[in-house]
Each structure stands twice: as C-alpha cells, then as structure tokens.
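[INFO] parsing input record for CIC11C00000004969
[DEBUG] input buffer:
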Amino acid sequence: MADSIKEETPTSALGSDAEFDAELVRKRKSKSPGIFHESKRAKESEDIDLSEDIAKQFKKFKAAPKYNFYSEEVYCVCRKPDHGGELMVGCDGCEEWFHFKCMKLNVKNQKLIDSFFCKFCQWQGFGTTKWHRKCRLTSCHNPILKNEKSKYCSEECGLQYFKSRLTGSDVLTQSDIKVVLTKCSGHNDLTRMGQEFPELPEVRLLDMDKLPGDIRQDLTDSDTKKQSINDLLELAERRSEFLVQIKEKVRLINEKLQLKLEPSGDSDEVKKSKKKKTKLRKVDLCCFDRKLSEDSMIAEYDRVLGLESVYEAFKDEIDEVVEHYDGDGSADYTGSMCLSDRRKCLRHNGWLSLLTDQVWKRKSELELLLERLDQHKADTLRDYSIQKYEECVV
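[DEBUG] output buffer:
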C-alpha cells in the first residue's frame, strides 16, 4: 500500500513558470464577479456529499476532464493537479488518486491503510477500505506487529503504554506492582494470580471456633436446612426406584394374563378352536394402584427395593389379579388396582408417566434448594473474608 500513497512534500517558494502563471490567472479570476471565489469552491466541495447523490457525483467525476487548461493532469474529485503539497492515496479499484482531505481521511493514519477504495468503487461494490490495527498507545499511529501478535508497534510503545497507565493510578502503585512481580516466578504465575479468592485460614479450614457468633449461627442454620432437604431428596430417589418396580409389576400382570387367556395344548379340539376363533386382543390393563398416593406406601420402599425379584415383592397382588380376571370382567376383585383396559381408562390415563414426572420435578426443586444453600454459605464466608481484609486496609 506504500506505493499507492504519494508523500507530502513542501512546495517551493518560487515554483515553476506554469505555477506562477496559474497563480496570476487565479488572482484575475478572483476579482471577476461572474466566477466563484476559491474559498466558495472549496466549501462547495466539502458539502457535495450532502447536496448530490452518489450516482450523480460519479457521473460528474467520470465526465470531468483529465487535464486542465495548462495540460496538467488533474486528480481526485476536486480535479486539481499534483503540485506535491498534499498527501494522496491511490484507489485499488479504479486506480485513481485522491487527496486525503477530499476523502476525509486523517493524515496521521496514512500508515494504517491496508487497501483503499474510493467512495465510487465502494458504491459499485468493488471493495471496501481495510485498515491495519492501530498501536494501543493513543499518541502512536503506526500499525501493530502482526508477526509477534502484539498490540503495539514496538517494544518501546508497549513500555510507554504501561508506564502511562501506572502514572497517577489510584488502584495500583509502582510499589504494588513491584511486590506482585517479586512474588511471581514467571508468566504463568502472573496469569494465575487472582483466579482464586485468597480465603482466610479459618474460612478455608472452616474452623467454627475462630468464626464470629453470627457467622457460626448462620452456618449452623444452613446445615440444618441442608440436612432436611437431603432427607427429602433421598426419599424422592427411593420413590423413583420404587416406580421402576411398579412398572415391572404392571408388565408381569399383563404378561401372565395374556398367557392365561390364550388356549394351550396340542389336542385337535384346541387346534380347531384356534382356527375358528379370531386372535385374542393383547391384554393391557391400567393397573393403577390407589395406594400409591398414600403416605403409608413409603414403608413399602425398603421392603420392595430390598428384594431382587419383582414378582417376589408383589406376589400376592399379582396372583390375586390373575386369579380374578377372566377377560370379560372382574366383579369379584376387591383389591386396590384398576383392572380396566388401559386404552379405555380415561380416569387414570398416563398415571405412571405423571407420577414419574412429579418425582423428577420434586428432585429438581430439592437440588435447586441445595445449590442455593451452598451458595449462601459460600457468600457468607466470602463476605466475612472481605470484611476482614478491608479492616486490615483501614
């Protein structure tokens, strides 16, 4: 990009003959009432973006002559020759030259330009101007060192930046920085510093005897609440496991009833009846047990979960249902389970999924309460440590 910028050079006091003649013509024209003054023309150029559409500007720019009255090549939107007095930049799209001032570019940022596209090329979609990242030091306008992945253009600017940050700082003094750097053996120790809060010894070891009375009482209350919640959470876990056993019990009941209702044997009468009769519908009973909603069922958790076989745990209930159900009705059944067809039982529709969801929701609520108690305990100890540190500073 360096080749596309013409460096600014001081204009000669005398100048060439053509420049001298041009100056005389300018003075003559400035006295003519029918021609705009140079200052008015400059102001009109500055306001051109506001008064004309970009399409009209581009049309006017392309139709403008390439040479002036003295056969000098003219550049930029202002259509002036290059007399070496102003910094110019070359467009990477149309390869035209433009003044920094006319393009509203800061001369101090000339080294930061990576690729430049004039407003006409940007309007036509040929590209956009790209910049190098500026040095972090405010007073420096050089690009950063890309190869070293630095935020500064040089080591000197980096040192100057941090010196300026430390000068007059109310947070860190040079003595504080010296203490920190003395305790750090390397860069890794410096980056790890501050990642963990420096807890007090009595807080880190949770030495209740060295903590104030109000802190001890707060922590004791939190531990009591936490123990109660843990007991409820354990009960919810056991109920969740118990429902898994209940699901298996329902499967065993339907399976045994299916085998009971299907004809068995190899006699000719059985084979003949199988051919005549249609296939039996799959047995799928509701099997909702109203005792599941009673608190007395909690006592069954330990007994049921302590046995390896589900059938052994619910043998009496399973055998009673299988004995009294005949496929057409169960009027003589006096147990606590619903023996209606699951697909037709609207009263207990989806009961097992509903109970499972209730247990999951209860467990989530209890776990959230435990997290809040743990966070409250950590905040209490952290606030106590901060208070002690502040007392030492004062």
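[INFO] The radius of gyration is 45 Å.
[INFO] shutting down worker
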